[in-house]
Amino acid sequence: MCAYPERLPKVKVQAMAVECLRHLKSFFTYRELSKELGFPEAVLCRYVRGDMVPGPERAWQIVCRAAEVDLLGRLVDRVLVLDESGVVNIYFIAYDRSIVSLAAQRALVEFLDLDVSKVLTAAVNGIPLAVAVSNALDVDVAVAKGTRDAGVVSYLEAEYMTPSPPTLRSLYLPKGAVRRGDRVLIVDDLLHSGRTLSALSSLTEKSGGVVVGVFALISVGESWRALVPQTVEKVVVVREIALS
Fold it and tell me: Nearest Cα to 201, choosing from 221, 219, 185?
């Protein structure tokens, strides 16, 4: 996983490593980071302060190692609150700058080899993460919304049912936002019932694309897994919450 990918610009990887360390330093000591990442404390300190810049290969090792030891997951654990009814405080996770930045780097490490050409999400909480992931992967992002914007002539629609009380809702995606042949990574903040995931998969299929990956910050339960398209090559969830 940590072999340097030649397709990535060296400057981009170096900047990502420094950004990664600066976010992590807000939550971990240099001693803890040294132990987890395998680099001397003094060296990590110089990177964070800007006195030195890691070379491209070392920078990629930092980003990969942070993903391998799940430092992102530990940050999520610090923020995550699950109430007695199983509701997650997803707002404070999905809009946390450090979590979103580190999650985008995690997605890059996990999905780089899948040749993703489009990131797809549903409004609204998934948008910050999806935009960050699209920037990391250097691809465009498409957003499906619950309403149609004025000025957009043609839309694709996918219906889904919500419970309590049962209500039929729709997600709308402008035609051309996902194109035929696109290899799509679905990004979401929270996977629970799988209804949004199913609707996004349907919109991708109607567009002529194929869903190759799913990335989420949090999942609750297992029911959503039955709705993962068979075309998906990889599913990554930062934190999975089991239902008792």
Answer: 185
- Does the bond joining 124 to the residue before it have cis omega, within 30 degrees of 0? yes
Asked if 93 and 99 count as a contact pair (C-beta separation under 8 A), the reply is: yes
Return per-residue pLDDT of the chain as tens, 244 residues: 578 999 999 999 999 999 999 999 999 999 999 999 999 999 999 999 999 999 999 999 999 999 999 999 999 999 999 887 778 999 999 999 999 999 999 999 999 999 999 999 999 999 999 999 999 999 999 999 999 999 998 999 999 988 877 889 999 999 999 999 999 999 999 999 999 999 999 999 999 999 999 999 999 999 999 999 999 999 999 999 998 7
Q: How far apart are CA 210 and CA 140, in angstroms?
A: 15
pTM score: 0.96
Q: Which of 127, 135, 128, 131 is nearest to 108 (CA)?
A: 135
Residue 159 CA from chain centroid, whole number: 24
Q: Give the type of residue at 242.
A: A
Q: Are strands 210-220 and 140-144 parallel, antiparallel or unpaired?
A: unpaired
Q: Do you find a cis peptide bond into 229, omega within 30 degrees of 0? A: no
DSSP 3-state assignment of 116? coil
DSSP label of 63: H
Residue 112 token pair: 């780089």
Rounded to whole angstroms, the Cα distance separating 126 from 94 reads 7
